[in-house]
Amino acid sequence: MIRFFVAILKSSRPKQWVKNFVIFLPMIFSFNESWVLNEFLEIFFTSFNAFISFVFMSSAIYLFNDSVDVELDINHPTKKNRPIPSGELSILSARISAVLIASVGMGFAFNIGSDFVFALTSYLLIMIGYVFIFRNIFVLDVASISAGFIIRVLSGALAIQIPMSNWLYICTALGALFIALSKRYSEKLNSSKFNETRDSLRKYELSKLKLTIICISILLAIIYFSYTILAVNLPSNHLMIISSFFVLCGLFRYLYLVLYKGQGEKPEDVITKDLIILTSVFVWVIYTFSILFWFR
To answer: I want to staple 39 with a disulfide (CB 3.0 to 4.6 A). Which of 35, 189, 230, 266 is the partner?
Structure first.
């Protein structure tokens, strides 16, 4: 029984849960505008509830995805070791577990509110569409991944019932697109090591992918810098401009690891294991929260 639950946990891909932390962005950037310090615990626990809801839902999707991909994963040099293709977890058990885990996630969502339930359901439908259709369609594959991140941020705002700056939605979309295309670039770069299992991957060209990734990273940097200058809801002393430095450090470090080290295939590993990126993210969050605390 313990081995069964361990197999379920492995198939839920805990490393991927880091993606759901973007749910906390609305909480951070609405501080001292839509809520104040004495409301912190209430706002934080609501956001955390939303985070847990997405953790369960995304875990269910990974389980279901692996049960669908089992025939392809068996022939993959690394994916064949996952619990389902290795035979450690049966397809039926995985799908039943996915339904149960998704139900738990939806239970957390109902505890938050109907708007959040709608957003989570939209995320679920898009991801199911990704598993069966979108990932095999050129460009639509990365667009659906980007949409998933935008829904996470929107859900974070809906959970605590605050408005969210359009600037941050744009930054989120570009950031998600940057990560998704970087993943495709690394997959294409390393495709000689194994047979390409994704139809859309064959249609990407390395040179064009590289140029697109560089352009998106530059555009993202410009948009975020513009946000720190032009957003009317930020402190008038423009100290938020300094936060751009930390964003640039993390962004271009990620770009370097993708283009020169070919490490973009597993974004969760790049983000959680690289000291420069981790430090940049941590300092950015602390600095941003501090500026909004003292000057907004």
So the answer is: 35
